[in-house]
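To: structure subgroup
Subject: Chain for Friday's discussion

All,

I'm putting the inputs and outputs inline so they're searchable in the archive.
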Amino acid sequence: GLLSLLMQQFKFDLCVIRFLDEQSMTLAVKAQMGMTSEHFGESERNLDMKTYIGSTFLSNTSSVVNDTEHLDKLESAQIIHREKIKSFAHSPIVVEGEPVGVISAFSRTSKGIFTDEFVALFNNLARQVGIAWRNHQQLVKLLSAREQERDLQIAKTIQMSLLPVGIPELSNLDLAGICVPAHAVGGDYYDFIRRPNGTLDLVIADVSGHNIGSALIMAETRTFIQAMRQIEQPYAMLDELNRFFCEDLSRAELFVSMFYLQYQPESGELLYANAGHNNPALWRSQSGSCEMLDADGMILGIKPDIDFEQRKTRLAEGDILVLYTDGVTEAEDSNGELFGELRLNALIEEYHHLPAADLIDHVLEQIRMYTGNRHFIDDISLVVMKVIHQQPLNPESKAQTDN
């Protein structure tokens, strides 16, 4: 999926993933797409500095050549010139600081296509491949466990590895997020994505099912979102995700709900689109009450052509955005009554003065008290964004953005 994505989006002639074969101590091809030359695409590469692939692995640093007329490695030059390659890039696949392989892209048609922005994207893709490889290694180690227990543990491992390592630091925002896995495993996921233009994308999603399949679908979803940052609008991201995954999801009898938002800190503008997910709560400091963000859109994986509505509003100083999965509102008490949106909204109102992380802690504690259970039946995910500083709203701009 990843290589075909690269081929489609950037029109490369060949993409290859090699991993270190520890028995032969060579870089062996594990996946490739494109040109069929046996020697060029399918042969292994030695661990030495004579080739660009070898030096990329050994130095743990990307290699980029935008014009192959000037190559300083004779062994590589012979192959590159014979195959009429005009530009290429290699990026190390790294796990815990150590290289385990190399991902490569080659073009026969274009020089100068490997810009700094693309190399940053390519390095990010290499990191995602490294995570997938590490998860695969963890899979192998867990094979001796009992079947169901093994599946749940692996899925949980994959799921937790997808969550953001750190919270973006923005001077005018207080951000926090958490996913508390259930005793059994669900498929919750959330992410923060900083864009070069200063906007912040927020995404929260839930995959149906409680097994490895749902966790792997979520891993692929995250990789797609991280890789496709050139898609600038929330509705367009949901549309591309749905088209890309529809066949895979229907075959696996899975579906994904997702809410995708994009916030511009300077203007306070918030764009959002929904794929059948729970509507986020927005506490307005001016009115002292919550409203729900709603936009029309079906869950991903049902049919290939879905119209995702995109709406926008504007946030003011003190406003609080709360994203959540259905594990929050569908938590049940001893009588089977749901926790529900009204209770969540009441908690946001009660604790709106607290920092984002403390607000999350209080909501989780109240859900535990409501259910009478320290372990949740379903995954629970919460993301909170508080606007600390913002230009004051004027009535005209609010009227325009809310229409």
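Points worth raising on Friday:
The chain has twelve helices and 16 strands.
Residues 139 and 154 are 6 Å apart (CA to CA).

D.
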